[in-house]
Write a structure and sequence with these properties.
Blueprint (H helix, E strand, L loop, with lengths): L2 H10 L4 H9 L2 E5 L4 E3 L7 E7 L2 E6 L5 E7 L4 E2 L2 H6 L6 E4 L3 E7 H10 L2 H26 L2 H11 L9 H8 L3 H12 L1
Antiparallel strand pairs: 1-8, 2-7, 3-6, 3-8, 4-5, 4-7
């Protein structure tokens, strides 16, 4: 069995050994190199990915070609274009590796089978999606109510494993500020 995902699952739910074995049986190992795309906009989304090792980012391009980062993912996080995955529609997002990454993927069809055979996994994914929804809501409110310093400190507190692994311009993009503004705030915090 894949130890990292077993630990992640058992931190959220209490599946039987048979349920764990069943879930592990449908996982596929995937490797992506730094700079390699895991997903591109317009392609059909057939998998979700659990990060065993590495760092990735998910972003979309607006009508002017500007990128907007909506998610980073490091060890023990799930990443994918979840809207496209669950609606079985073309992706709107790009997902690229910031570092070499080792992932475990689950296909849409296999996940539906898992839900039928081991319904406890519906609870697992509901808990994860609820947590993600709350995180997105907090991020929206933060971007509307807080200044750059407050947002950056909140980012560092919420994502301590990411801050040193992601370029400054990507963090700035995620926070919705300029890289220069973020650099200024970082200097002020360090002094």
């Amino acid at each position: 069995m894949h130890a990292p995902i077993v630990k992640h699952i058992t931190n959220h739910i209490s599946p039987s050994q048979d349920d764990l074995q069943l879930f592990n049986s449908v996982l596929t190992q995937v490797s992506v190199s730094k700079g390699q795309f895991l997903l591109k906009s317009g392609t059909y989304v057939k998998h979700q990915y659990f990060v065993v090792k590495g760092c990735l980012k998910a972003y979309y391009l607006d009508d002017k070609g500007n990128s907007h980062i909506i998610q980073f993912a490091v060890e023990n996080w799930w990443i994918g274009d979840f809207e496209a995955f669950f609606n079985q529609a073309p992706a709107k997002l790009y997902i690229v590796a910031i570092e070499d990454a080792q992932l475990l993927s689950v296909s849409y069809d296999n996940l539906q089978k898992i839900y039928d055979q081991a319904p406890i996994y519906e609870r697992y994914f509901r808990l994860l999606l609820t947590k993600a929804f709350i995180g997105q809501s907090k991020r929206i409110l933060s971007s509307q109510e807080k200044n750059t310093k407050e947002r950056y400190l909140e980012f560092c507190a919420s994502y301590p494993l990411i801050e040193d692994r992601v370029p400054n311009y990507d963090i700035a993009n995620y926070l919705g500020v300029t890289p220069e503004n973020l650099s200024r705030v970082r200097r002020l915090i360090k002094s």
